[in-house]
Structures are given as C-alpha cells and as structure tokens.
Amino acid sequence: MLFISMKINTISIFLNDVAIVWEDKTSGYIPLQRLRGACPCAFCSGEKDVFGNVYKGTQKLSDSSFRLLRYEKVGLYGLRFFWEDNHHDGIYTYDLLALLANEQ
After folding, report:
1. How far apart are CA 90 and CA 41, in angstroms?
2. Separation between Cα atoms, residue 20 and residue 22, nearest integer Å
3. What is the CATH number of the domain that holds 24?
4. Per-residue pLDDT reduced to its tens digit, 35-78
5. Cα–Cα–Cα angle for 96, 102, 104, nearest 5°?
6. Does residue 1 form part of some domain?
C-alpha cells in the first residue's frame, strides 16, 4: 500500500522503533535496524553510472548506527534521519516509509 499523497501526522522515536501516525490516523512501526538498512543515500544504496554499474560505499555499522537522534522534514515528501554515528544523508520518502512500516 502506497501513501503517495498521504502526509505524516506524528512521529515518535523509541529505543528500537519509530512509530508513524499518518494523516488518516493509520499507524505503523519501523524497527530502527530496518530503517537504517534501507537508507536511500548514494553511499548506502549506491548509484548507477551511465553504463548501469552500481557504486556504493562500504561501511561497518556499530551499535551507534542504529540509534536515532532526531529527524527533520524535507519538503512535502520525506524525512531525513540523524543517526548517532553522524550519518544523515538519506532522504526517506513517505512512500518508502510506508513500505518499511508494512514489512513484516
């Protein structure tokens, strides 16, 4: 289920999860490990060159990689999360967050 035009009403950060309440009052939880593992930035998810080769960084994730400090809204379509290990490059669209919240 995609929430293309759905906006976020509230977000709560917990020790191991993020809870999202959408404007239609539906809600979902995203484990922080899943959220960090789905980081859409070029370093984490990679980016393609004109030939289709994917380039991405290599990183060692530690406990601090899964501790969420805060978030900020980006335009009308997404959020940027700030992790304790200083990573904050990915912009998570509302569609991506909805998909992550619906994964079992």
Report:
1. 4
2. 6
3. 3.30.2020.30
4. 999 999 888 877 777 888 877 677 788 889 999 999 999 998 99
5. 125
6. no
pLDDT digits (tens, 9 = 90+) for 77-95: 999 999 999 999 999 999 9
Give the C-alpha separation, 62 to 84, whole Å.
10
Which tokens in the block code for residue 73? 């809204």
Q: Which domain holds residue 66?
A: 8-102
Please indicate, yes or no, if residue 3 is contained in any of the structural domains: no
Residue 40 CB neighbours (<10 A): 13
> Measured between alpha carbons, how far is 11 from 47 in angstroms, rounded to an integer?
29
**DSSP assignment of 6-52:** --EEEEEE-SSEEEEEETTS-EEEEEHHHHHHT--SHHHH-EE-TT-
**Among 95, 81, 70, which Cα is nearest to 35's?**
81
